[in-house]
Amino acid sequence: MVRWRGERYSVVLLDGVMVHLAPRPGSGLPLVALPVGLLASSRDFAILDAEGQPVEHTPIADFGLMEGISPEAAREARIWERHVIGVATGLLPGQGRGRHAPAGLRTG
To answer: What percent of the chain has pLDDT over 90?
Structure first.
């Protein structure tokens, strides 16, 4: 269970970077789908235990702090991002599915 925008929700699905939330029964609120980063960066976001109390966790980094980094550092970060995505997915950004796969990965 999580707290978001002052309400309690159950996490019903994680789909890539999207999280799907179901509100408490009878709350009248709709099902919600939003990026995990948006959920986790909300000021009142909390993971709740069985009693509905927030579980301690390490705060999420404030990505606004990255504003103002040098162009060279930004360029290097983009290069590393491509490599990390390639290792994690077997594809570099912009490549379609099935063109390359990591060694040892079955594709069929």
So the answer is: 31
